Amino acid sequence: MKTVEEAKYAAETVDLTKVYRSGAYKVYALRNVNIKIRRGEFLAVVGPSGSGKSTLLNLLGTLDQPTSGKILIDGFDTSKLSGGELARLRSQKIGFVFQAYNLINRTSVLRNLELPAMILGVPAGERRRRALELLELMGLRKEAYRKPTELSGGEQQRVAIARALMNNPALVLADEPTGNLDSKTGRSIFELLRKLCHEQGATVVVVTHNLELASMTDRIIHLRDGVVVKEEEVKAG
Amino acid sequence: MNPLEIFRYAFEALRERRTRSILTILMVLIGAALMTALNGMNAGMENFVLSSFSSLSPNSLIVVPGTSSVTLDAHDVTLLKKVSGVDDAVPFIQGAAILHSGVKTLRVMVAGFDQSKINLLYPTAELEEGSFISPYDSTGMVLGSKIAMPPGETRPFAWVGKVVTAEYKHTSIEPSGQIKREAVKRSFVVKGVLKYTGAPGFANVDRSALVSLQAANSLFKRGSHYDGIIVITASTDLNSKVEKEILKLYSGNVMVISPKAIVQVIEKTMAGFTTFTVSIAMVSLMVAAVGIITTLFTSVMERTREIGLLKALGFKNWHVLVMFLSEALIVGIIGGSLGLVAGYFGAHLLLMRPVQFSHSAALIQPLFEVEGLVFVWLFTLAISLLAGFYPAWRASKLNPVEALRKE
Lengths: 237, 407
Known about the structure:
The complex is a heterodimer.
Chain A: E1 9-22, E2 25-33, E3 36-38, E4 42-46, H1 53-60, E5 68-73, E6 76-77, H2 83-93, E7 94-97, H3 109-120, H4 124-138, H5 153-165, E8 171-175, H6 183-200, E9 204-207, H7 211-214, E10 219-224, E11 227-233
Parallel strand pairs in A: 4-9, 4-10, 7-8, 8-9
Antiparallel strand pairs in A: 1-2, 1-3, 1-5, 5-6, 10-11
Chain B: H1 3-16, H2 18-54, E1 60-65, H3 74-81, E2 86-101, E3 104-112, H4 118-121, E4 127-130, E5 140-143, H5 145-148, E6 163-173, E7 179-194, E8 208-211, H6 213-220, E9 228-233, H7 239-249, E10 254-257, H8 259-302, H9 304-312, H10 317-350, E11 355-356, E12 361-362, H11 370-396, H12 400-405
Parallel strand pairs in B: 3-8, 5-7
Antiparallel strand pairs in B: 1-9, 1-10, 2-3, 2-6, 2-9, 4-7, 5-8, 6-7, 11-12
């Protein structure tokens, strides 16, 4: 197993295959997918629905297990890890951003941010400092003690992005992060993610079906029927 | 992750569903309160009944005629004294009579026996003032404390030196078959008043008027036949042996009552009664357990996406398990603790009024022991945890991908 320093890629898939069985049929959600995600890269995965985008994201997030092939997160081969070890890996190395934000509405924005650090066992003072720092970065410092439901959709998604960054993950996975937002707000979210990659050194994989937004990333991977059909580098600008 | 953090998180989740959580806690509270109160009241009741009987000396046996053809007289006293293991035999005559003192009347038990032997029968009896009466005194009377000063009265019913009249309604059957009723009246001088013994209920010396054996014989027209003879054994261990001897002596024509045997019967009966009532309380805790299961299950359903999120953020299965068990435990702790307090005060409140018996009323104090309270508390917690286990286990096994997808 490689150490963090040696790992060249934030994440890497090797012949990744996921098969769903429905009765006598075998459905290939993903077939021999090989992707290498560079550190600090802003990567978009696009494709029609049913192309395997979400499956890929769930596998990269170790929420689901591949049928065959393997995934390396920051150099760690996830196929060799137990359920508990995977949970720890997710806590340390992976940040999630969801279409529906999935914030916990009964508690404050600040405590939502603290949650991932709490799971990792970071002391209270330290995680509070980190949470406030991230809120500052997101321009939401004033909203720290409000409930998520009191914020706009765009603001809630920014809180969710801040939460994903709490533990300095190697990889941030965003599943249709702009799906619930209007196009202007969606664009600002993409600009934020892009800034985080290029200025903060985060690595972000975003699944979207919005090609216009996808063109704001560094690279676009096109999926169709579980196979990578096209990879294109996006020219800056 | 620090288990205390999980506990705090669980508490916040409970607070979010305030009404439902409070109702579940209430169910647990009722179960625990019921168990506490019933335990305390049963223990109080048992204590009360036992103390009533234990006021009689444990090494005494009461011999009474077993059939109407058998009579007991002075000859039997001599006979019983000769039985091996018997220290003494005290004959007695007793009956209910109405006592008149001035314009006041009181229904009392009048007991006649040799008062020099009072402490063989009632080890705790003592004189407050005056003196006991000799076996040849046919007009002297010693009053129990509740007769001299009836509860709730401001002035005494009678005092030392006071003349009182005892009235007894005698019923006899004439040889012709006619029923004859006559009122027998005898005057007595109060010679002594007993201290309050506090021994309630049966054989209640506080509510008795003590006279000499011959005075009782005259009042109740017994014709020198005793109502019974109290046999004092050399030691409690000899009770059953002496009892057998006496039964043999009279070929089973007498009854031998042992206060100790009565106490044992009461203990057994009360134990059965306690088991019965406490099992009712346990049923109510079982209902509370089902309440916890339902509440937690609903919570798991509603929070499926949250569980998915927590797993994505790095919650291990056991974290989820502990989180929901914590919710069950919090419900148990709050419900159990409040239930204990409610049960404690509830039992006192329910027994605040005196319990009415045929001749008297008595205050029964509920009795609580620390071990009993701790048991109820821990039992409530255990039931709550047990109830929480299945929903918690189901939550911990949720697939994060499916959980996150749930609307």
